[in-house]
Amino acid sequence: MFKVQNVQTILYYNIIIIFLGLGIWEFIFDGAHDVILTLITVLISLITFFGFLSLENSHTSLDAGDLQTSITVSIVTTYFWILSMTIFLHKGQTQTELQEQLVTSFTTILSVVIAFYFSSSAYQRGKKIEAKIIDK
User: Fold this and answer.
1) What does the radius of gyration of the chain's CA atoms come to, in whole angstroms?
2) What is the pTM of this model?
3) What's the start-to-end Cα distance of the chain, in Å?
4) What value does the mean pLDDT take over residues 27-46?
5) Tens of pLDDT along 58-79?
6) Strand, helix or coil for residue 16
7) Helices 64-88 and 35-56, packing angle to 10 deg
8) How many Cβ atoms are within 10 Å of 65's Cβ, its own excluded?
């Protein structure tokens, strides 16, 4: 697995994928093949997930917090990409039913992931505080 030194590296990889993918989609395929947009979305998700997993996993063992952070950041990044493509891709046209369902479903998934992320983080911090109190 590749090692990422900082968050900016992940951002640069994602920006390169976005510009190359949109350039290929617009100039080579003339905006006709939406499979390119799907590939961009998948690549952004994978680069973000494995990049943050590599960034968080700078130590030797992988713990649940590292995986939680990677999943959450990947879901949020993918959500904003899908949302921006849905809003800005076809200006002046109404959204299709599929686009509306995609945004609604992904909003629900994002809400659940964020709720679980923050609730489990709060629980873990509470357990650490409880352990410190008991040890005293």
Assistant:
1) 19
2) 0.76
3) 42
4) 86
5) 666 667 677 888 888 999 999 9
6) helix
7) 150
8) 13
